[in-house]
Structure formats: structure tokens, C-alpha cells
Amino acid sequence: MMSLKEAVRSGSVTVRPRKAKETKGDKAVAAVSHTMLLIWSLIVILPLLWTLMTSFKTTREIFASPFSLPEQWNFDNYVSAWTTAGIGSYFVNTIIVVGFALVIVMVLGAMCAYVLARFKFPGSRGIYYLMLAGLTFPIFLAIVPLFFILKNIGLLNTLPGLIIVYVAFALPFTVFFLFSFFKTLPDEIGEAAAIDGAGEWRTFFQVMLPMAKPGLASVLIFNFLGLWNQFLIPVALNTNVGHYVLSQGMAAFASQAGYAVNFGALFAAVVITVVPVLIVYIIFQRQLQGSVSAGTNK
Amino acid sequence: MIDLSSQVRPDSGKPAAIRSRRKKLTFDKVSFMVVFLGLPLAVYVVFVISPFVQAAYYSMTDWSGFSASMNFIGVDNYVKLVHNDTFMKALGNNIILVIVLPIVTIILSLILATLVTVGGSSRGQIKGLKNSSFYRVVSFFPYVIPAIIIGIMWTQIYDPSNGLVNGILTGMGFDEFKSFPWLGDERTAMIATMFVIVWGFIGFYMVLFVAAIKGIPAELFEAARIDGAGRVRTLVSITIPLIRDNIQTAYVYMGILALDAFVYMQVMNSGGGPNNSTLVMSQQLFSTAFTKNQFGYSSAMGVVLAAVTLAFSGLVFLVNRLTGGKDDVR
């Protein structure tokens, strides 16, 4: 829907009645604007291209000639980053943690938002504001007590411990976003489901949840980016190297590369981390940009 | 609605049955509420709310984490903080960040957003520049790259001898930059770091503003044009006032990020930079807690950080309201 509107506005769909003449001033403004935008695009693209290029060089080459193309395009750096630097296992850990956390937070968040949005009961406003508090307070305030809570229940330095903390801190945002979404679904649908004999459970899972799909997709994308990028929580609560996730593994690798100097592998590791996200981004970029506007223009 | 159901009720008992069923507490409904509300709330209270409350209490103790004893020392930690020059320096750096980052990011992204939406021809239909979607896609790129990777990448780009920046500068003939340590010089470390953060977020806010500007009816722009308003005038008098709430939201988001800034600072200058010029509160908190094990003291830092964050958001809402915006707190 969004994309259609966009297309209509930007003029790519409507047939222009007549070709508007461009004045001199317009041409000058357009030239200046395009120059500005091009410079900006270069500032974005150049670092990425340079990183990609450098990832194919040996460390000796990087020092000798940082700006020339690699002598030969080989994948040694990628192999060594994936195996010896442990990026492979960090990658797997990240997928496990983010995957489980996403599923759980989507289910719990949707349930909580649904109840808060569609049922009136004493204290519902209070719960809503409690969620708001969780969004505003910095996570840094909670990190020390969290360390000891996890320690006491024996989940410190484990993947399940990490998953549950991810879920807890992604919950307020998820509830907020979906709360406004469930509010907009018409009451008649719930009534129709009840008339057809569906209980509350069935109404939710078979009627409401499928209807909330667009909202769920948007939240899912945001949560994915947020959790995939999460750095503080794993660094503080998951210090066992075998359980490292990608972000903290990369940080450890970078600080260690300062001494052991395998820069080629470091660049390769950066590319390995960025490429999957970029591919997902390019495929879903319309959806994603739609989500940004949906998420902030409520 | 009510009419309909009262009409129906006499001949079929169904709606009445529904009504009573909705009020009665059936097993279906009770189990539903318990699971749907209880489960998320339990997770949330245990792992989010209770740590916040505990932190507030720890901040008034001398707890070192692993000792069983914990003495209540009132506001001593806070008094100590005020006299801690390093922490005060970090607070100062955070304040610089919270002022500079949102303003620069929002101004630049607003300009870019304007160019791609309404920057096109001044005749005919209101439209953006040609190929604007290309710029939009490219600009949004950095937002999807994990912050830690952005930090690692730019550390290499700023590298004094092999980095891209000095390579380009010497290539252009500025030989004094041959081995200039951008992140190792007190004068440039902060600016270089801020540039990286701005680099990562302009695209995101640009997309946000593009969406907001597209929400403005085109008639308004056309009317302004007929009245003879130029591009700058249109931006100042039409666009900005109409997307003011989005700008406020962007300001708050970006400010909260600037008050954190942990990842960027930690990866680009983990020790706080030359002469602590890039040290931020979150780094201080982290090392006090997890290397020095002073958990009480670090919790006090957390409380200060939270207080500054709340004060900042409050201030933004207040300023926006005083200058005539809607007091729409989302």
C-alpha cells in the first residue's frame, strides 16, 4: 500500500499531463542537489567498497599498498576468519540466540499487546505505563543486577540466559508497536468469531494473529536488527568464549588483531558479518523503509 | 449496533448468550488472561523492572558484588561521583554528544529528505529529484550494518598509515596528513567519532523524514509555490512546522543514543581516547562494574545516566511544547 502511494506521489505511476519546462534556476538547483547527494552516496559506498577490496589482500599487501587492488583475488582470509578466528561458531550462536529470542518475543509481545489493547480491566493502564518505563530507562542501569539475577538462577554465560534477557528487553517495544495495531482492528471481528463459537484462545490464534501480519512483520524486522546488533548484553552477561555471539566475537577479534595482526582476516570477518544483512536489506528494502514510517508515524 | 442486537434478541437468544458469556469467568477466559498477560509480565518484571529497582538500591550501598556484606551508605556514592573528575569528564562528553549529534544528524537528513521529495522542478507537479530512490536505498545502507562493525570498519579507515582517509588526503596533495592519527589526537578524536555515528544514522532519519514529508498534502506545497515561496522558504514555513512531531521523535531517539554511545566509543577508543577525550559515562560504568567490581558505585553511575536521559527527554518535550508544538507524548 505504502509503496503504491509512494509510487503515485513520486510521479512514476501517474501519466504527466504535459512536460513541465525546467527553468534555469531549476537546472542549477538540480545540479547542486545531485552533487550533494552524489558526494553523500560516495561517503557511504567508498568505505564499504574499500573494506571489501581489502578483505582479499594479505596482511603484507595491506601495509605495503593499502589502495591498490589485491594482487590476486583469493579467499584465504575468509577461510581463516571462518575457522581459526571462530567467526563460524559466533555466527551459529548468534543465529540460535536471535532466532529463539525473536520467536518468543513475537509470541509474548503479541499476546500482551492483544490483551492490553482489547480488554478493559483494572490496572491495564498501569501495565501500559510500566512498559513505557522500560522503553525510556537505559539498559545500563539494569546491567549489574541482571548479572546477579542470571547468576542466581544459573543462566549466566549460557545461551538460554542470553535469550531470555533479549526477550525481556525487546518486549516493551514489541508491545507498544502491536498495541496500536490491535487497537485498530475492528471489534466486530472478535464478535463474529465469538458468534461462530470460537473461544478466546482460538480467536487470538486463528483470527487476530493472522490479521495482524503486516504489523508483526514490521516489528519483526526492527527486532531482528536490534537483537542482531546487540552488544552490551552479551558482553556483560555472556563471557564464555564458546558462547560468544557475532558482535562480541568481532569486538574481541578486532582488539586482538591489534596485536596478532591478521588484518586480512579481520576485513574478511567484517564482510562475512555485513553481507547477509545487506542481502536481506536489498531484498526487503521497500518493506523495511515502509516499516520505518509505520513505526514512527503512528 | 445496540439497536441491532435489541432487535435480534427476541427471536434468537444468541447475542444475549454471548453477552453473558463475556461477563462470566469461564475457564477459557481465565486461562487466556493468565497465560497471555501473566507470562509476558512475569518475564518483563523479573528481567527488566526488578533490575532497575535493585540498581537504585545498590547505588546507595558499598557492595562489591562478591562479598556477602552490603552496607547502606546513603548518598555517599553520589558525593564521590561529583568529585570524580574522570566521571565528570565523561558526563561532559555525553552532554557534547547529546547536543551535537541530534542537531547535525537531523539537519543533514532533513536536507537530504527534502531534496529527494520536493527538491525537483519548480514547475508542474511537486516531485523530487530524478533517481531519488537510488539515493534513498544507498543512504539507508549503514543503518543495517551492526554498530560494532561500523566501529571496526572506521577504525581501519582512520588508521594513520594504511587508512582510507589519509590515503585520499595525501592523494589530494595534503602531505601533512600522511600519518595523522584521527582517533589518537585529542583535537580530532571526538569529531572523528561523531562523524562515524552520524554516518550510520543519517539514512535512517532521512527515510523517516521522507515518509513524513510524503504525508503532507501536495496542495500545501502547490499553494506555497503560487504564493511565491522559494525552496528555502517552503522548507522553513511549510515542511518543518508540519513534520515537527517527527523531528521531536527523531531528536529524542538520537539523544538517547548519544547518551549511550557505548559500542562506538568502546570499539574505536576502548580506553576513553587520548586524554579521555571520547570517554562516556557508559564506558565508565562498565569498567567500574566488571573490572573493578565496585557494583554499588557503578549502580550510582547508572542512576545518573538514567536521570540525565529522563531529564533530556523531558526537556525536549518541554521545549517543543513551549514553542507551540502539540504535547503529544507517545
Relevant terms:
heterodimer; A: 298 residues; mainly alpha; MetI-like fold; disordered N terminus; B: 330 residues; 2 domains; 70% helix; globular; cell membrane (chain A)
SS class of chain A: mainly alpha
Largest sheet of chain A: none
Q: What's the number of structural domains of chain B? A: 2
Proportion of residues in helical segments of chain A = over 70%
Structure described in brief:
Chain A is mainly α and 298 residues long.
What does this 3D model show about the protein?
The complex is a heterodimer of chains A (298) and B (330). With 298 residues, chain A is mainly alpha-helical. Chain A has a single domain (81-296), classed as MetI-like fold (Orthogonal Bundle). Helix content of chain A is 78%, strand content 0%. Chain A has 14 helices and no strands. Chain A is globular and about 75 Å long. Residues 1-5 and 7-17 of chain A have low confidence and may be disordered. Chain B is mainly alpha-helical and 330 residues long. Chain B has two domains: 2-50, no CATH class; 80-322, MetI-like (MetI-like fold, Orthogonal Bundle), CATH 1.10.3720.10. The two termini of chain B are 31 Å apart. Mean pLDDT of chain B is 83; it is low at 1-22. At the A-B interface, α1, α2, α5, α6 and α7 of A face α2, α3, α5, α6 and α7 of B.
Helix and strand layout, with pairings?
The complex is a heterodimer of chains A (about 300) and B (about 325).
Chain A: H1 2-10, H2 24-54, H3 59-64, H4 76-82, H5 87-118, H6 124-136, H7 139-152, H8 159-184, H9 187-195, H10 200-211, H11 213-229, H12 232-237, H13 246-260, H14 263-296
Helix pairs in contact in A: 4-14, 5-8, 5-11, 5-13, 6-8, 8-11, 9-10, 11-14, 13-14
Chain B: H1 2-8, H2 14-23, H3 27-58, H4 76-82, H5 85-118, H6 132-144, H7 147-157, H8 164-171, H9 189-214, H10 218-226, H11 231-242, H12 244-260, H13 262-268, H14 281-290, H15 295-322
Helix pairs in contact in B: 3-15, 5-9, 5-12, 6-9, 7-13, 12-15, 14-15
